[in-house]
Design goal:
Order of helices and strands: HHHEEHHHHH
Protein name: Rrf2 family transcriptional regulator
InterPro entries: TR_Rrf2-type_CS (IPR030489), Tscrpt_reg_Rrf2 (IPR000944), WH-like_DNA-bd_sf (IPR036388), WH_DNA-bd_sf (IPR036390)
Number of helices: 8
Helix content: 55-70%
Strand order of the largest sheet: 1-2
Distance between the termini: 39 Å
CATH architecture of the domain at 5-86 and 134-159: Orthogonal Bundle
Number of strands: 2
GO molecular function, one term: DNA-binding transcription factor activity
């Protein structure tokens, strides 16, 4: 399975929003400039996050994006689903039905060993992503790089002056 780069961009943007000054809305252009990303494409990811209720969009001269919920209430799976969609990565097409012993009366999505294996792996993957919150990621980054929140806020101030 391969996720688009939008997932990485969205997760890093959410982390940066968590470290922004309290109450500050950060424009998409400033979030994009932080990592030298294409603003229009990042804005599409931010709009997807807004539709999912992960960020809110604030209009006006001091507008931009901010987290819609506390980092403890946003899971990594929430962000992945907002960007990639809720569909399953593996979709059993029940090809066993067309095989030599195939039967129209069997639900091969449940009976097929390949389907069961792939479904189990996806459930484990989703469970792991659902168990990790944005706050968990924040804490891990801050334990490794304690200056990250201050550095992020400083970078936003510098980008504001451009």
């Amino acid at each position: 399975m391969q996720m688009g780069e939008g997932v990485e961009w969205a997760l890093h943007s959410c982390l940066n929003l968590a470290w922004a000054e309290p109450g500050e809305a950060v424009p998409a252009a400033r979030l994009a400039a932080f990592y030298d990303l294409p603003p229009a494409y990042l804005n599409k990811q931010l709009q997807a996050l807004a539709r999912a209720g992960i960020v809110t969009s604030v209009s006006g001269p001091r507008g931009g994006f901010r987290l819609a919920r506390a980092p403890e209430e946003i899971t990594v799976l929430d962000v992945v689903t907002a960007i990639e969609g809720p569909q399953e990565a593996f979709r059993c097409q029940e090809i066993l039905r067309r095989g030599p012993d195939g039967s129209e009366s069997i639900d091969y999505r449940k009976a097929c060993v390949v389907s069961q294996t792939m479904r189990g792996a996806e459930l484990a993957w989703r469970k792991e992503l659902a168990a990790q919150t944005l706050a968990d990621l924040q804490a891990r980054v801050e334990s490794r790089l304690p200056r990250t929140p201050a550095v992020t806020r400083q970078r936003f101030r510098e980008l504001r002056e451009l």
